[in-house]
């Protein structure tokens, strides 16, 4: 018996007297244990390839035993040395070919298993799971388009009567901002330079101003105030979707890009997608109700 046949039996943890049925049974048990989908270690994958190559070799051995006879492996005379070396060289190449084919078959089986799992997953998906990804992506795209058009479209102006101006902290360790309230119970966070330009202006004395806002969503962008006679200064309004432009658009755009890359979302990817979309939409809606929330606070404090 050739040494490589003995090694093949050893790889399958069998004695050389094992039958073909015992070889099949041993291979199935070891394949389940060292399959790449079960064993993620590098040694496990090498072991799987080794036992697969051994199984292929022994299957051929049981089907064509004469190919692996002692007569074909060892020369009985010096004149057969060259032929024997050639046969051993071919056998080595055959082993390499067996290993290569085993790897290809293992990869093919892995892909087939993935397809079976995915098909089973597809059958269990509800209509919301099938079309929810597309629907939310289209919603993100629509919001993005509306925001971009609304931001670059010519702004509207409306007069307001400023009621109070305060200096407040814009978060821990950040710059100060000016809080402006109006007689219509609105409030705006404005650049701190407004309070610097009006050092004596505080309390309940009113002053006229002008708010520039987007035409469709009515998001305030700037406040125009006369700090001195016959002069008007513009001050950016903070804490709106447009004060962070295009940050929100990038978040929404990320959701759209994610859909283009992974149109069929499954498993952990769906959690990532909907989390990103929800955070983007939540921030967008919270800023839109900024004016309404300001009116409620104004009513409660006056």
Secondary structure: elements and pairs:
Layout: H1 3-11, H2 20-34, H3 42-63, H4 70-73, H5 81-124, H6 127-152, E1 156-169, E2 176-182, E3 187-191, H7 193-197, E4 207-213, E5 220-228, E6 231-238, H8 247-261, H9 268-288, H10 290-301
Antiparallel strand pairs: 1-2, 1-4, 2-3, 3-6, 4-5, 5-6
Helix pairs in contact: 1-3, 2-3, 3-5, 6-8, 6-9, 8-9
The rough form would be described as rod-shaped
Beginning-to-end CA distance, first to last residue? 101 Å
CATH fold name of the largest domain: Helix Hairpins
Low-confidence stretches: 71-80, 291-302
Number of helices: 10
CATH hierarchy, class of the largest domain: Mainly Alpha
Helix content: 55-70%
CATH architecture descriptor name of the largest domain:
Orthogonal Bundle
Strand runs, count: 6
Largest sheet: 6 strands, antiparallel, barrel
Q: Structural class given helices, strands, pairing?
A: alpha+beta
